[in-house]
Amino acid sequence: MPSNSDYNAMMRQWAILNALPKRPPGITAQALQGKLADLGFNVTQRTIQRDLNDLFRLFQFKCNEKGKPFGWYWEPGTSVSVPGLSIAEALSLHLIRDYLKPLLPNAILSSIQPQFQQAEETLKTLQSTNPFASWQDKVCYVAPSLNMLPPAINEPVLDTVQTALLKDRQLEINYQGINDQDSRALTLHPLGMIQRGAVNYLVATAFQYQDVRLYALHRIQSANILEASRGYKPEPSEFF
DNA sequence: CGTATCAATAGCTAACTTGT
DNA sequence: ACAAGTTAGCTATTGATACG
Predict the structure, then answer these.
(1) Closest residue to B8 measured CA to C1′
(2) Per-chain mean pLDDT for chain A
């Protein structure tokens, strides 16, 4: 298990590699210090110089020593491509996860689950040394409605709705409207999904009608995909 | 051309942190 | 408690530029 300082130094050096331009005259140690400071790595120019010298021995980049300050850049045709998350990527992923969750198909969501996990780990590890890692605790998205807690959506229902949407198939649902005593069965032609405030809606036409309506996902009791393809479909600009 | 000045790099050391 | 590693700070050196 690497120590926290090891990890921070490694992330800093990785940030340096990513900040190097791909052509001369390159970036100076001073400019690099500024860029790294913007990313939350507050170290001296001397440290950057040492990092550059260390990295120089390991990677294919160039140092323009002809004029001072030195310019550092990738040799044409080379650059670094390391699978991993920068602090910026980790923070962005972490922040968008909750808001995008209902709008992403489950298959897509689970395929990027490892990245979400890694984002969380990265932020946790950098929390004590990089101020950006704590940013997530300082901002919050509040839905423009009185009810701040998003209503619970039935996971299998969400999955079915997304699949029907993806495959352009009709959907049979049991829907309990806001004024309904009991749920009623509807055959829908799914068109899209909308997140409005804390509530997610399925955009669809019902039965043979052509008027577009919104169905709150948390009010769908159950959902089944039908064999039949979706019928009438207006342009997205007409229903979004 | 020689000198002064300034900025950047590089070497060294002390302080600090972390692992054993 | 100690060893090892990292970083900041100080300083010497080097190179570019301005000026007489």
Answers:
(1) A69
(2) 75
Phi, psi of A106, rounded to the nearest 5 degrees: -55, -40
Mean pLDDT to the nearest integer, A27-47? 73
pLDDT for A2 = 34
Measured CA A76 to C1' B7 distance, in angstroms: 29
Nucleotides on strand B with an atom closer than 7 A to protein CB?
7-12, 17-19
pLDDT in tens, A82-97: 556 677 778 888 888 7
CATH of residue A214's domain is 2.30.30
**Angle of CA points A156, A158, A161, to nearest 5°:** 105
For residues A182 and A231, membership in a common domain is answered with yes
Token pair of A49 as six digits: 């110089």
Give the total number of structural domains in chain A: 3
Q: Which helix (H) or strand (E) holds A98?
A: helix A87-100
Diameter of chain A measured on Cα atoms: 81
> Residue A42: inside a domain, yes or no?
yes
